[in-house]
Amino acid sequence: MQRVLIYGNNSDYIEEAFEKSGFDLVDVEPEMIVAYGGDGTFLESEILFPGVPKLFVRHYSDCKKCRKHNFSKIISKLKEGKYDLHTEMKLEVVVSSNKNKKLIGLNEISLHYIPPRALRFSLKINRKKMATDVISDGVVVATPYGSTAYFNSITRKSFKSGFGIAFNNPIQKMGPLFFDKNKVVKIKIERGEGIVVADCDTDGISVKEGDEIIIKKAIAEANFVDLKGMKRKIQDY
């Protein structure tokens, strides 16, 4: 993977280190993305460059330690081929009133209410009703990778396979649901207006009473570059 795109703010030092080590820094058709920042930066890089292998290097925006960073260990492992490629599932969503628009998320697909009224909806897994007359601020359908993010902030739980469903601030107490990755989630809006979004993408889909939201495993996957002997989200360098 010679052609590398560094994605993130305050990236001058890491760009210089990669360029001096012989990598070709590019803006188009990269063979690898180095996502340099936080979780939002990583998700943005996947939205802009879906499927391209990504190395996640954590970095704080205040850049107080920028001059002290040493990227030699990261670069050496890449140059020596000491890494594995790992895939993670994604989710896709379409809405019955706008079937030409499909969103794909690595972390989660979220349904949010539009104030001032909460949403009323029902939820099915395949054809089986799992929840009816739910009144809440929305729902989050998460992947295993995303289960430590928004899903976890609602449920205080995470999981390693399939997908999970979290009800956001329901009137009645409702725990999370967990299902096999090949199931299909169908949410029917019975009252209110909302918006469906994927991860941190601002380009969502508006929904209203009568709309059906269909969420399932996407064909597309995310590809991670895991350096041997280092955590996936690299922060010690």
Shape category? elongated
How much of the residues is beta strand, in percent?
A: over 45%
* Secondary-structure element string: EHEEHEHEEEEEEHEEEEEEE
Whole-number average pLDDT?
95
Count of the domains: 2
State the strand order across the main sheet. Answer: 6-5-16-13-8-9
Could you say what the CATH topology of the largest domain is called?
Answer: Tumour Suppressor Smad4
Named at the architecture level, the CATH assignment of the largest domain is Sandwich
Alpha-beta content class: mainly beta
Report the CATH superfamily of the largest domain.
Answer: Probable inorganic polyphosphate/atp-NAD kinase, domain 2
Q: Give the low-pLDDT segments.
A: none
* Distance separating the two termini: 21 Å
Highest CATH level, the class of the largest domain? Mainly Beta
How many strands, which pairing sense, and closed or not: the largest β-sheet? 6 strands, antiparallel
| Global Rg | 20 Å
The total of beta strands comes to 17
